[in-house]
Amino acid sequence: MSDERKNKAIVDIYGQQFSVVGPESISHMRSVASIVDEKMREISDKNPSLDLNKLAVLTAINVVHDYLKLKEDYEALESLLEEKD
Predict the structure, then answer these.
(1) Which positions ≥6 away from 20 have C-beta within 8 Å?
(2) Distance between CA atoms of residues 79 and 85, nearest Å
(3) How high is the pLDDT of residue 2?
(4) CB 27, CB 42: distance < 8 Å
(5) Which keywords appear in this protein's UniProt record, sorted alphabetically (predicted)?
């Protein structure tokens, strides 16, 4: 069993409440939920006929795409810094 302290936040994503538990700060969990909510609304505005399941999957795909692009950019910057050393 982990001794790590867990925080709990109730967040609203796309009109539904979720209880989120984790070691991160409550403000961090709310920030994550806000980004997910924003992305879902953005996709829904462009594709209003999507059902909730498809909307959730497309949101996940978009968020992971953004993450991978940032990771690639970070790794490229890391490589540049290592070359300068």
Answers:
(1) 8, 9, 10, 11, 29, 32, 33
(2) 10
(3) 55
(4) no
(5) Cell cycle, Cell division, Cytoplasm, Septation
